[in-house]
Design a protein that fits this description.
By secondary structure, this protein is α/β, with parallel strands linked by helices. It has a single domain, classed as Nucleotidyltransferase, domain 5 (2-Layer Sandwich). It has five helices and five strands; from the N terminus they run E-E-E-H-E-H-E-H-H-H. A hairpin with a 5-residue loop joins strand 1 (about 5-10) and strand 2 (about 15-20). Helix 1 (about 35-50) packs parallel to helix 2. The radius of gyration is 15 Å and the shape is globular.
Length: about 160
Amino acid sequence: MPDSFCIIAIDPGANGGIAWNVDGKNYCVKMPPNNLVIKDFLRDLSYKYKLIEVHLENPSKGGWGMKSAALLFKFYQGIGFIEGVSYAYDFKLNLVDPRKWQKAVGMEKKPKEPSKDWKNRLKVKAEETYPDGVPITLWSADALLILSAALKGKIV
């Protein structure tokens, strides 16, 4: 097992992503489609790297305006699953409120700003932050910005 330190940032949910940094190199993938694939993905990282730190987005004020209780339940159930897997693999876990990482990267949602406009601004910020070829999409932008805040030590 290598001695490399791996920092992982997770934007949970169907439209989220996972970003990670090892030895200064950044990677990202779309959020896996189900818990089994998420578990296998994190297990594979646990085999590759000796020290792993996970920064998992966990909104404390509800799931970003989700309209139904069923969607909200599923969303937080997913967060709880990732939290449990992280503990099972002995990862250091940091639950991150979205406002905290957004502030750390210099972003703030404008009052009454449409979600689409906000997400596009986050994507532009991620493109400015990661000009090194890592794929920047609407699904990867938040995870990459959480990673940026974690690498700066501003959300631990």
